[in-house]
């Protein structure tokens, strides 16, 4: 019997099945700017309508949250997470997402699982007026065990050069407004899985994995609703490292983000993790978003308007003069 690619562990037919299952849905994310279709060697996207366009790109994955999804056999939300982690980053600079590409790697491809993951990306792209224009599925026996998957994505957006938001306009007296997260999003899951080893345990009347797998919130509509009405000085996506690591990325020298942690609305599942795992409150804020998925910094005179535009946004602090870039006042 001669060797074949299939005998080495790679089933090309399963890959073809995956494409068949996602092709129509992926096509629904396309607009007139997409110049080719799924299956080409490269993806083409035409840019028009901008005077001095700047492309803004971001790439990310979902970390070990994927392990929760695989063990719970719930795959659709992971695609949303992958897209959101990339798209939310480029929103911080005022960009609108144009197109997205994904990378899916596994030990043995199951077209049903792969399609569910990609279809989650499709729904997220639709919600953000973004085209899913390409991707790669890699079946790599020996590198991954059967049943193992990894997923990553790459998002490109666009913004006029004179409208780029980079934090340079932030000044003392500006207000810091929080946009709530939908939970852990896609960060800190190595600690989550250590404290919560049983994803099937009951939490607040349902299996814990349902709470853990709530997808990362998509902020495109919220951020651009604000940008249409208000001059925003800075935006930070609160991902790994929490408020401590992400807010200083937009704060200039001589300024400090003074935040009152007691104002932050912490999700109950995070409070349960803190209690059960014996995790210090400062460690919690340095690992998780703690209920704050994004923050926007605006002039004090615009703060009330932002709060009016977004029903669930709320103020958590202000910019002061100082050298430490962030002062998070924590009380247990």
Automatic annotation (TrEMBL):
Reaction equations catalysed: 2-formamido-N(1)-(5-O-phospho-beta-D-ribosyl)acetamidine + ATP = 5-amino-1-(5-phospho-beta-D-ribosyl)imidazole + ADP + phosphate + H(+)
EC category name: ligase
This protein's UniProt keywords: ATP-binding, Cytoplasm, Ligase, Nucleotide-binding, Purine biosynthesis
Record-listed E.C. numbers: 6.3.3.1
Keyword Magnesium recorded: no
Pathway: Purine metabolism; IMP biosynthesis via de novo pathway; 5-amino-1-(5-phospho-D-ribosyl)imidazole from N(2)-formyl-N(1)-(5-phospho-D-ribosyl)glycinamide: step 2/2
PurM-like C-terminal domain segment(s): 171-324
Stored InterPro entries: PurM-like_C_dom, PurM-like_C_sf, PurM-like_N, PurM-like_N_sf, PurM_cligase
PANTHER family according to UniProt: TRIFUNCTIONAL PURINE BIOSYNTHETIC PROTEIN ADENOSINE-3 (PTHR10520:SF12), TRIFUNCTIONAL PURINE BIOSYNTHETIC PROTEIN ADENOSINE-3-RELATED (PTHR10520)
Family per record: Belongs to the AIR synthase family.
Protein name (database record): Phosphoribosylformylglycinamidine cyclo-ligase
Organism whose genome encodes this protein: Chryseobacterium gambrini
């Amino acid at each position: 019997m001669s060797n074949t690619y299939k005998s080495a562990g790679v089933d090309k037919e399963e890959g073809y099945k995956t494409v068949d299952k996602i092709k129509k849905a992926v096509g629904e994310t396309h607009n007139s700017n997409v110049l080719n279709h799924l299956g080409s060697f490269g993806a083409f996207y035409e840019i028009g309508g901008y005077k001095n366009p700047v492309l803004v790109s971001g790439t990310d994955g979902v970390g070990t949250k994927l392990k929760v999804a695989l063990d719970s056999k719930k795959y659709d939300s992971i695609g949303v997470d992958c897209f959101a982690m990339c798209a939310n980053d480029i929103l911080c600079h005022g960009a609108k997402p144009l197109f997205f590409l994904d990378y899916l790697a596994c030990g043995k491809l199951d077209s049903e699982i792969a399609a569910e993951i990609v279809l989650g990306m499709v729904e997220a792209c639709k919600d953000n007026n973004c085209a899913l224009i390409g991707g790669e599925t890699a079946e790599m026996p020996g590198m991954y065990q059967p049943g193992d998957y990894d997923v990553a994505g790459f998002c490109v957006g666009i913004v006029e050069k004179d409208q780029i938001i980079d934090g340079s306009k932030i000044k003392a007296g500006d207000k810091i407004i929080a946009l709530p997260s939908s939970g852990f999003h896609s960060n800190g899951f190595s600690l989550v899985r250590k404290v919560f080893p049983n994803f099937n345990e009951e939490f607040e009347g349902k299996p814990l994995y349902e709470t853990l797998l709530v997808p990362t919130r998509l902020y495109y509509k919220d951020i651009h609703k604000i940008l249409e009405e208000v001059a925003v000085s800075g935006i930070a996506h609160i991902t790994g490292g929490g408020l401590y690591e992400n807010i200083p990325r937009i704060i200039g020298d001589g300024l400090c983000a003074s935040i009152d942690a007691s104002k932050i609305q912490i999700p109950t599942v995070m409070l349960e993790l803190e209690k059960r795992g014996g995790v210090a409150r400062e460690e919690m804020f340095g690992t998780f978003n703690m209920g704050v998925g994004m923050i926007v910094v605006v002039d004090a005179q615009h703060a009330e308007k932002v709060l009016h535009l977004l029903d669930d946004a709320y103020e958590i602090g202000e910019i002061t003069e100082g050298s430490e870039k962030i002062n998070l006042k924590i009380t247990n």
